[in-house]
Write a structure and sequence with these properties.
By secondary structure, the protein is an all-alpha fold. It is built from two helices and no strands. It has one domain.
Length: about 70
């Protein structure tokens, strides 16, 4: 399992460094920052998980909601 984790981290680092190898045609200036889309994706993913944990409290049903 450790090899899988370190392999995944290595792939992420290589892809992040690949961001340096091409010219970006950004619409907004912040899109041209190094690693912007990697950080944007990470922050959005964490926000979705936190939002889902809060939504669970609202939409959760009792175990016997549908009855027998």
């Amino acid at each position: 399992m450790d090899q899988f984790f370190y392999g995944l981290v290595g792939i992420c680092i290589v892809l992040l460094l690949g961001d340096l190898l091409y010219h970006k045609h950004a619409t907004f200036s912040f899109e041209s920052w190094f690693g912007f889309f990697a950080w944007y994706g990470f922050i959005c993913c964490v926000a979705l998980v936190l939002l889902a944990k809060q939504m669970r409290k609202v939409v959760k049903r009792d175990e016997d909601y549908y009855g027998d």
